[in-house]
Amino acid sequence: MTSHTDLPLFRWKQECQLIAFPTKNRVGKIRDVAQKWLSQRTDGLAKKYAQQIDGDLQAHFDKLGILPSERKQLTSEFWKEVRAEIARQRPSSRPGGNAA
Questions:
Q1: How confident is the chain (100 residues) per 10-residue block, as mean pLDDT?
Q2: Residue 67 domain-assigned?
């Protein structure tokens, strides 16, 4: 006689899919990255900072188990929003300067 846990119904495991929070909606992180990127003294330092943030994003995706195909989209959405925020925060993008 088999135990009741040997029945197929009890062995069945529902597959799950992880849905990551959209990186383009991480407004606080986007603003922080843009502000810190703008505060870098040289283009080289700004580039290194961006590489560090990108590495941190990839490590976060590793931890969450995000598929590589989804990572590319999430990463590009994040950097698109960061670039828009940089343009918004840059003093030269405001008519009359940054006195708003």
A1: 64 75 90 96 96 96 89 94 94 60
A2: yes
Q: What is the phi/psi pair of residue 45, to 5°?
A: -65, -40
Name the one residue in this structure whose structure tokens are 């009359």: 96
Q: Are 74 and 18 in contact (CB under 8 A)?
A: no
SS3 content of the chain, % helix, strand, coil (to 5): 70, 0, 30
The residues, ordered by sequence, that sit 6+ positions from 5 with a Cβ below 8 Å of its Cβ are 11
Amino acid, res. 57: L
Q: 16 in a domain, yes or no?
A: no
Amino acid at 40: Q
Instruction: Answer yes or no: is 9 within a domain.
Output: no
Q: Using CA atoms, how far apart are residues 51 and 98, in angstroms rounded to an integer?
A: 28
| Alpha carbon distance, N-terminus to C-terminus of the chain | 79
How many Cβ atoms are within 10 Å of 30's Cβ, its own excluded? 21
